[in-house]
Amino acid sequence: MPGKNKEKPAPLPAAKQSSPERILQRLDWQVIRRLDGLLQGDYRSLFYGYGVDFADLREYQPGDDIRYIDWNVTARMNTPYIRQYMEDREITAWFLVDLSPSMDFGTTSTEKRGVLIDLVATFARLLTRHGNRVGAILFNGQEAGNGSNGGSHRKHRMLPAKGGRNHVLQLIHELMKQPRLPKSPLTNLNALLSSGLLTIKKRSLVFILSDFISAPGWERTLNLLARNHEVLAIRLWDPREVELPDAGPIWLEDAETGEQLYVDTSDRKFRSQFNEAVQQRENGLNAAFRHAGVEPWSLSTHEDLVRAILRYSAVRKQLHRLNRTAHANALSGAVR
Fold it and tell me: 250 and 8 in contact (C-beta within 8 Å)?
């Protein structure tokens, strides 16, 4: 199965052998300080477009964002009017975190789960040190009562949105202590997104962190979530999930279900079929993100975190410039 070839999961050195305090100290020195210098404190490109409250109406001026035009008032007044908003001084951000079995895939030095913990901790630290609040919904991908030895696992763990360094440490602790679960039926990511839809009431900045290896059916819920919030979909992946080496006959194991398949990776036809399946899945994910109006960010476990965040910041700046140009052009046509 594409994106699922897996060896025996290795322990997670960064999360298992460190305390939350040590992880945060390491990120402060190795990631956040570097970002401070390179971004010069301008994090608006990362956390742009958060919740706002309606304040007033005024006539459109060149350079205004067409998304804020009140078309009902514009029709009545026969001239374009803009809805003015009072920006919230405090951003509320939520992390919807997929901790299903496939997130444990990786090498002995780097797993998707380890990269996920570092990324959540970094963003939470950047947000809370400027007075904002962060919350999280942790999802293990299993139905209640489907645990090993007849036990049960809660599907969700919710941390209310709070601020401060201690809350970031608690978030890291909760991420670290989530158990590695046995293989199970394919994760239903829709359960995580639905939980976010029901839990997050106020317009917020929502990060979805997952490999998006899931049963179908989550796309519509993502669309609904994006209507109410600014949603950033962060897809974590490992190169070995999408690149099949010519290693001869090997066993492949599905990272979610544990299903095994004996294949000959030296067979060119099989490798070609594998690559086609990977590309089809990639195209399907991109189509789902576009349909929901969600900005996807693909993050490899082998990529330097600072460089990845800078790359993402540059992409978001470019998208915002293009959107403003498109909106201005559309408004110009509408006014004519």
Answer: no
